[in-house]
Recover the amino acids of this structure.
């Protein structure tokens, strides 16, 4: 009987550990840019980008902060309910970005190679990147993407359904 109780307790412990590690509510992390159901494809000019969409206040606040890298030809598309001059910063980033500012599905501005802030930079000392005019979307991609893909003002931006 004692052996049975020990085996039952052991089995229950293993089952609980498995549920805690792999069960419902556990979010698994795929490398950013790997195609998942919440990712979409975007065409900008003649280039294609796998994007993650940030269309809620919380998603826009977090952005790419805390990520160590971004897969080639991947990015994050920030979508706003109405056009405005939305400021972006590089807080929590460890790689340079290009910021491609979009209004009515056309590129209206490009900031190339926004640099990673020095370690220890206070939030109030971080540069804020702003578009020249109001935008309704911002695409963040790896630094050098715009030059490497010939992205320019006036290019058409289309998000695949």
């Amino acid at each position: 009987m004692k052996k049975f109780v020990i085996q039952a307790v052991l089995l229950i412990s293993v089952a609980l550990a498995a549920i805690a590690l792999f069960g419902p509510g556990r979010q698994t992390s795929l490398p950013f840019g790997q195609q998942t159901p919440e990712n979409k494809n975007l065409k900008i000019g003649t280039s294609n980008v796998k994007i993650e969409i940030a269309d809620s206040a919380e998603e826009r606040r977090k952005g790419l902060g805390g990520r160590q890298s971004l897969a080639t030809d991947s990015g994050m598309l920030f979508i706003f309910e109405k056009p405005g001059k939305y400021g972006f910063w590089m807080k929590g980033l460890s790689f340079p970005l290009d910021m491609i500012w979009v209004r009515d599905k056309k590129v209206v501005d490009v900031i190339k190679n926004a640099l990673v802030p020095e370690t220890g930079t206070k939030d109030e000392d971080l540069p804020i990147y702003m578009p020249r005019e109001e935008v309704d979307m911002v695409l963040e991609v790896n630094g050098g993407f715009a030059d490497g893909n010939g992205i320019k003002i006036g290019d058409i931006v289309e998000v695949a359904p």
